[in-house]
Amino acid sequence: MSAPELASSYAALILADDGVEVTADKLQSLIKAANVEVEPIWTSIFAQALAGKDIKDLLVNVSSGSGAAAPAAGGAAAAGGADAPAAEEKKEEEKEESDEDMGFGLFD
């Protein structure tokens, strides 16, 4: 990450921590107070990207996308769930089917 990106990111986090709305002017003020030179385009980009978003919520839910199901499945397998071997067999079957769908295999 470049210095302007880092400075804008940290300034946005500071504003969010204080519960202040993230705007280009406020970002630029914080960055200037830190004696860092950043072109105004960076603060404008960050302000537009973060407009209307709860930055704290974004930080807390970073892995809630595709990775959220993995801990739940891992927890069931670690608890001695019988579904773990069945899930592995299903994945292997899907891999085999994908080769057949293309009409050729690795060793054909």
Summarize this structure briefly.
P1 and P2 exist as dimers at the large ribosomal subunit. The chain has six helices and no strands. The chain is mainly alpha-helical and 108 residues long.
Give a structural overview:
Plays an important role in the elongation step of protein synthesis. P1 and P2 exist as dimers at the large ribosomal subunit. Keywords: Ribonucleoprotein, Ribosomal protein. It comes from Hirsutella rhossiliensis. Helix content is 66%, strand content 0%. The chain is an all-alpha fold and 108 residues long. It has helices at 3-17, 24-33, 40-50, 55-60, 69-78, 83-101. α1 (3-17) packs across α2, α1 packs across α3 (40-50) and α2 packs across α3.
- Specify the overall morphology: elongated
| Through-space gap between termini | 46 Å
Helix content: 55-70%
Number of strands: 0
Note the total helix count.
6
The average pLDDT score comes to: 73
- Residue stretches low in confidence (pLDDT < 50, at least 5 long) are 67-79
Spell out the helices and strands N to C: HHHHHH
Tell me the fraction of residues in β-strands, as a range: under 5%
Structural class: mainly alpha
The description of the largest β-sheet is: none
Q: What gyration radius follows from the Cα positions, in whole Å? A: 23 Å
